[in-house]
Amino acid sequence: MNTKTKTTNVATFSRATLPITCPACSASLGTIDVQNLSQRRAWGIAISSLDIEAPDDPALTAEAGLIRGACPSCDAELAAFWVTFKRDHGADRADEPQSPSLSLALHGEAYAGWAMIETHEGGVDCIEHLFGPVADERAEEAFEYVRDFMTDLPRPEAD
């Protein structure tokens, strides 16, 4: 599955797992595991939607969300967010079985890194960008920082 849009600012490195750590004390909040992706938000207590601009491509949908939780080691209140891009290829691609993939994504100019999860299910290609937790009071500032390089985030490609 070639769902990545090639950008010169983002490099990806395939991984089977990626740790989620507290930015205050470096304690583990869990692990993103390509074999069990449902646990990627397990550390969170509340999940809500965020407003995001629609992509320039009308066949592409975008969603963003915020995860709020607390570190079990130091009780720091934390927030993390994700941005998901989906492209529906229709029933003609619905039967292609695809395993999910997990990558560490790095933006060279913004000095930012995050987890990138690619899935294909029922003819829909999805790329989720899951950013690491920050102190809850910095969540809005962190999301605004990502908005600055949002157009560089890889998205599912058209056929």
Task: Write up what this structure looks like.
The chain has one domain (10-152). With 159 residues, the chain is mostly beta strands. The relative contact order is 0.26. The chain has one helix and ten strands. The strands form two sheets. Strands 1, 4, 5, 6, 7, 8, 9 and 10 form an eight-stranded antiparallel β-sheet that branches. Mean pLDDT is 88; it is low at 1-7.
SSE blueprint and pairings:
Layout: E1 10-15, E2 17-21, E3 28-33, E4 44-50, E5 60-70, E6 77-88, E7 101-107, E8 112-121, E9 124-130, E10 134-135, H1 139-147
Antiparallel strand pairs: 1-7, 2-3, 4-5, 5-6, 6-9, 6-10, 7-8, 8-9
For this entry, give a set of tags:
globular; 159 residues; disordered N terminus; two-stranded antiparallel ribbon; mainly beta; eight-stranded antiparallel sheet; single chain
Q: Quick gist of this model?
A:
With 159 residues, the chain is mainly beta.
Oligomer: single chain
Secondary-structure element string: EEEEEEEEEEH
The percent range for helix content is under 10%
**Uncertain parts:** 1-7
Number of strands: 10
Strand portion: over 45%
The rounded Rg comes to 16 Å
